[in-house]
From TrEMBL:
Gene designation per UniProt: Herc3_0
Biological process according to GO: protein polyubiquitination
Pfam family of the protein (one): HECT
Catalytic activity of the protein: S-ubiquitinyl-[E2 ubiquitin-conjugating enzyme]-L-cysteine + [acceptor protein]-L-lysine = [E2 ubiquitin-conjugating enzyme]-L-cysteine + N(6)-ubiquitinyl-[acceptor protein]-L-lysine
UniProt domain HECT: residue ranges: 1-142
Name of this chain's protein: HECT-type E3 ubiquitin transferase
Active site: 134 (glycyl thioester intermediate)
Length: 142
C-alpha cells in the first residue's frame, strides 16, 4: 500500500503536470531569464510576482496624501471610520477598486501611497466616489 500511495502521489504531483509545467517554465524563462530570479528565495519571488497579502490598514491610512482635503475634514474622518469597520474582504475589495489589485506591490505597504482628492463637483451629492487606478487616486466627493 505504501508503494502504491507513493507512486500515486508522485504521478499526481510530478508526472501528470510535467508537460504543462515545462511549457509554463519555457514561457516564463523566455520573458524572465533565470539568472535574474536565482537571487530570490521562493517566498521572496512569490512576493515580487504576486505582491503582499498581509496588510496594516492603519499604515495605509498614514501614507495617504490629501488633495483639496485636510486630514481632519469631516469627509475624511467619516471615510476612515467606515473603512476601519469594514471586514477584511471588503477592505481588499476597496484596494482593488483603488489600485486594480487586491494586493500591495512587492516593495511593501510602507511605500505604497495613494491620494484622496476632492473632485470639486458643483453638486457632490450626485457624484459617486471613483478612482484613477494608474495613479492610485480616490476621488471622494464631499
Amino acid at each position: 500500500r505504501k508503494e502504491f500511495v507513493d507512486l500515486y502521489v508522485n504521478y499526481v504531483f510530478n508526472e501528470s503536470i510535467r508537460k504543462p509545467f515545462e511549457d509554463f517554465m519555457d514561457g516564463f524563462l523566455r520573458g524572465c531569464p533565470a539568472r535574474k530570479w536565482k537571487m530570490f528565495l521562493p517566498v521572496e519571488l512569490q512576493i515580487v510576482l504576486q505582491g503582499h497579502t498581509k496588510f496594516d490598514w492603519h499604515l495605509l491610512e498614514k501614507n495617504v496624501i490629501y488633495r483639496q482635503y485636510k486630514k481632519l475634514d469631516r469627509t475624511i474622518r467619516n471615510f476612515w471610520t467606515v473603512f476601519h469597520k469594514l471586514p477584511e474582504e471588503k477592505k481588499k475589495m476597496f484596494l482593488a477598486f483603488l489600485s486594480g489589485s487586491d494586493r500591495i506591490p512587492g516593495y511593501g505597504l510602507e511605500h505604497f501611497k495613494f491620494a484622496i482628492a476632492d473632485p470639486q463637483a458643483q453638486n457632490p451629492d450626485e457624484l459617486y466616489p471613483f478612482a484613477n487606478t494608474c495613479s492610485h487616486i480616490l476621488f471622494l466627493p464631499r
